[in-house]
Amino acid sequence: MSHPPDRELALAARRGDPDAFGELVRRHQASVFNVCYRLLANAAEAEDQVQETFLRAYRKLALYDPSRPFGPWIRRVATNLCYNHLQKNRPVRVALEDERDRPAEGEAMDPASAAQRSVRAAALRRAIAVLPPHYRAVIELRHFQGLSYGEIADTLGQPLSNVKSHLFRARRQLEQSMREEGWGDVNA
């Protein structure tokens, strides 16, 4: 069974094929949700913004450049919607109950280590949630989505130098926050 590339699906969706756009949604909904969740720190609001992202993308498909990857484009739409939502609506609320820590597949963890990992992960999520939105976005895209610096620049529509600068400053703020909570280095 052949799986058409995103480019072909986007072009078919432009021509009015709802199944093609449905496949794009299926392929990208998890990464779009992750971007929204990490920026908004609230699962319900993230879900709302995911819906809005795909509605906006469908209406703006004519603006998508098929010579470029679809993933960074849709994540950029999501990031911009979340920025606008944050600016209009509220300060960040951290809803830590929405995310659970799980060991990596095949990894067994004793209860004490699991508890320490969970507490440390919660501290890191709190530290990320209070970063300015543009810092949260680069942390999300680099460390949770695994994008390269160039892909982040494309996704956010920013120069590469801004991405590098924001990432450096965000990491520095995270390290400081983690030290203040007694965790030392973020990468430990």
Task: Spell out the key features of this protein.
Arc Repressor Mutant, subunit A; Rna Polymerase Sigma Factor, Chain: A; 188 residues
Would you give an account of this structure?
With 188 residues, the protein is mainly α. It folds into two domains: 1-95, Rna Polymerase Sigma Factor, Chain: A (Orthogonal Bundle), CATH 1.10.1740; 110-188, Orthogonal Bundle (Arc Repressor Mutant, subunit A), CATH 1.10.10. It is 69% helix and 0% strand. The protein contains eight helices and no strands. It has helices spanning 6-14, 18-40, 43-59, 70-89, 111-129, 133-144, 149-156, 160-180. Mean pLDDT is 83; it is low at 90-104.
Brief digest:
The chain has 188 residues and is an all-alpha fold. Helix content is 69%, strand content 0%. The protein has helices at residues 6-14, 18-40, 43-59, 70-89, 111-129, 133-144, 149-156, 160-180.
Secondary-structure blueprint of this entry?
Layout: H1 6-14, H2 18-40, H3 43-59, H4 70-89, H5 111-129, H6 133-144, H7 149-156, H8 160-180
Helix pairs in contact: 1-2, 2-3, 2-4, 2-6, 3-4, 4-7, 5-8, 6-8, 7-8
